[in-house]
Amino acid sequence: MRFRVRLTPKGGRDAIDGWWTDSAGVPALKARVAAPPEDGKANAALVSLLARALDVRKSDVRIASGATSRLKVIEVDGDEAFLQSRLEQAAKQ
Length: 93
Description:
single chain, about 90 residues, alpha+beta, 2 helices, 5 strands, globular
C-alpha cells in the first residue's frame, strides 16, 4: 500500500491529525512528531507512529520518497484492505 504523508517535525507530540489536500486536490495524511528534522530522527519517529497506528512492524513501513521533504510517499507491506481500514480509523482519531 502507498500513500502520502505531510509531516510536521517538532510538532510537540506524535500524532496523526487527519487528512490534508494540496492545491491539486491530492490527499495526504497529516502527521506530527516531537522529534526534530535532523539525522533522520523525525523520519524514524514517523515510521514508528505509522507502524503503531497501522498495527504492523516498523520493518513493514518505509519512506519510498521525500526523506528530506515535508511531503513523503510511504509504502507499507501487508493486507491492503486491513491497512486501509486502519489508516482511515487512525485519521479520524
